[in-house]
Design a protein that fits this description.
Blueprint lengths: L1 E5 L5 H11 L3 E6 L13 E3 L15 E6 L5 H11 L3 E7 L35 H16 L3 E6 L1 E3 L9 H9 L1 E5 L6 E2 L1 E3 H13 L4 E5 L6 E2 H12 L3 E5 L26 H6 L6 H14 L11 H10 L17
């Protein structure tokens, strides 16, 4: 099986390349060559730049499938499809749950949930445009390749080499133990998928030549934000006390890690992907591997989170009230 990976040396792409090589596939990488140049010795690398439209290196060769990890704009996808044409058998596009409408959905929504209107008149990626641009990419891949198109829509992806703060913040914070400020409701449902499970699903879909759209969400057992934090603490050997902090009383970044007020967006149905081969790494395993990786890299600062000093200030403002003094002549325990 010959697999071309567009992007593949950072996080999700890196996991896909690992899984493809593990399956025995012949892998070719396409990218700018600026990240992870030391990775995957012996794997052919074709240099190009999607932002500038440089796809000359893809002008020759053929592959059974392409896994498009780095397509964010319709131009990215359109230019790749133009140069590859029918020299690839299947086009698998990594999309996002941001494609879905946010209103009127219920827990357990599946891949047929209405999507947001496609956007094609901008190349500026923002909270408002990211999902609609991915919708346009999905539409273009499906229109060009039809039954040879596969769309994978991951939830929040977690695992080693994830340089975002989404999951790593809670792993790191739980490992410190003690009172933990939670700027939301600990009962909020959370869906995170291990990057290695996502990668193995991608490889399985390609090997089975399976079309359609698939939710890549986990863990296998539903969990909550509070449950996730306690799992991270258990892995680290610490104990935590969760202190819910109303968001209105604390200055928060726009996208605080894993805090999502629209709960049904964290309750997607994974059954189609499970039936197609999505594995189920235990959440504790993901947390342990991220903790070890984060410590090995020296725990650099994270974005969009509380700093330790900010959290201390928030916790001080929500300190437990002191026990009132006993009234005069009150009986005491003997």
């Amino acid at each position: 099986m010959r697999v071309l990976v567009l992007g593949g040396t950072s996080f999700v792409g890196r996991a896909i390349v690992d899984a493809a090589l593990e399956s025995g596939a012949d892998v070719t990488l396409f990218g700018r060559g600026r990240t992870g140049a030391e990775l995957f010795p012996g794997v052919p690398r074709l240099l190009g730049d999607r932002d500038s439209g440089d796809y000359a290196a893809l002008g020759q060769g053929g592959w059974d499938a392409v896994a498009d990890v780095s397509g964010y704009l319709p131009r990215h996808v359109g230019q790749a499809m133009d140069v590859l044409g029918d020299r690839v058998g299947r086009y698998l596009f990594i999309s996002s749950h941001a494609v879905y409408r946010r209103e009127g959905i219920a827990p357990g929504s599946d891949e047929d949930t209405p999507r947001r209107p496609a956007v094609r008149d901008t190349e500026e990626l923002s909270e408002e445009t990211y999902g609609p641009l991915k919708v346009a990419c999905e539409d273009d891949v499906t229109a060009r390749y039809g039954a040879r198109a596969t769309i994978v829509r991951p939830g929040k992806v977690a695992g080693p080499y994830d340089r975002s703060s989404a999951f790593t913040y809670w792993v790191r914070r739980a490992a410190r133990g003690g009172r933990v400020a939670v700027p939301g409701d600990p009962r909020q449902p959370v869906q995170v998928v291990d990057s290695r499970d996502l990668a193995r699903l991608v490889v399985r879909l390609i090997a089975d030549d399976r079309p359609g759209a698939f939710h890549a969400v986990g863990p296998a057992e539903p969990t909550t934000l509070g449950g996730l934090i306690h799992t991270c603490a258990r892995v680290a050997g610490t104990e935590v006390e969760l202190v819910p902090v109303p968001p209105s009383t604390a200055p928060l970044p726009a996208m605080f890690p894993l805090i999502r007020p629209n709960w049904p967006t964290q309750q997607r149905d994974p059954s189609r992907a499970r039936a197609a081969g999505l594995p189920a790494t235990p959440l504790a395993t993901t947390a342990a591997d991220v903790l070890a990786w984060d410590r090995q890299r020296g725990e650099p600062p994270l974005e969009y989170t509380f700093t330790p000093a900010q959290e201390r200030a928030v916790l001080s403002a929500h300190a437990e009230p002191a026990h009132p003094p006993a009234p005069p002549n009150a009986p005491t325990a003997g």
